[in-house]
Amino acid sequence: GKLTGWTSPNDVMLKVAGILTVKGGTGAIVEYTGPGVDSISCTGMGTICYMGAEIGATTSVLPYNKRMRAQLVASKRLEIAELADEYHDLLTPDEGCKYDKVSEINLDELKPLVKGPFSPDLAHSISELGANAKKTAWPLEVKVGFIGSCTNSSYDDMSRAASLAKQALDHGIKAKSKFIVSPGAEQIRATIERDGQAQILRT
């Protein structure tokens, strides 16, 4: 399948954490492959690799593809793209290779997830979160919303948050709790200022 709608690369990793648990990747290199990889942005691939720490992975890898090449070219690294093209077979899975464990996720069926509390492998779909919180007596009041951790402060993440905020504003919905936004880098801050997301998030 492929990522669609509000489902993000973060959800891929939260699903994996739900399958493998926080210790399931310990001492392992976790490889993500299959047709669904091509629906994930380069930023999203970076997020997935970074979040490998959530399952204890030594490292995480994704195969070199057209999206990576386009990112390299767009960021003025054509020589690296051409080198990667030349050694493409070393940057993609070996045909018929064996793995210690294989888990399959259908991205078409993956839904947006919220993790926790207490553990990153405790994931809930948005539709189940309220019922699960009541059932387990978790606090129900949301006091602060935060966009800006190491795994949700990219341009893609800021754009999603701004889109959601704009929909709320368009329907006259006002926030009932504090909302903090912290872009992941100065370049991201400058870009969301330029493209208008920052103003929407301030409103």
CATH topology of the largest domain: Aconitase, Domain 2
Count of DSSP E strands?
A: 6
Inertia-based shape: globular
**Beta fraction of the residues?**
5-15%
**Global structural class:** mainly alpha
- Largest beta-sheet characterization: 2 strands, parallel
The CATH architecture of the largest domain: 3-Layer(aba) Sandwich
Mean pLDDT: 92
Helix-strand pattern = HEHEHHEEHEHEHH
Order of strands, widest sheet: 1-2
Q: Please mark out the parts with pLDDT under 50 across 5 or more consecutive residues, or reply none.
A: none
Summarize the structure.
The protein contains 8 helices and 6 strands. With 203 residues, the protein is mainly alpha-helical. Strands 1-2 form a two-stranded parallel ribbon. The protein has a two-stranded antiparallel sheet with strand order 3-4.
Describe it:
InterPro entries: Acnase/IPM_dHydase_lsu_aba_1/3, Acoase/IPM_deHydtase_lsu_aba, Aconitase/IPM_isomerase, Aconitase_4Fe-4S_BS, Aconitase_4Fe-4S_dom. This is Aconitate hydratase, mitochondrial. GO terms for molecular function: 4 iron, 4 sulfur cluster binding; aconitate hydratase activity; metal ion binding. With 203 residues, the protein is mainly α. The protein has 2 domains: 1-129, Aconitase, Domain 2, CATH 3.40.1060; 141-201, no CATH class. Helices cover 40% and strands 10% of the residues. The strands form 3 sheets. A two-stranded parallel sheet has the order 1-2. A two-stranded antiparallel sheet has the order 3-4. Helix 6 (155-170) links the parallel strand 5 and strand 6. Helix 1 (9-20) runs parallel beside helix 2 (42-50) and helix 3 runs antiparallel to helix 4. The radius of gyration is 19 Å and the shape is globular. 22% of the residues are buried. The model has no long low-confidence stretch (mean pLDDT 92).
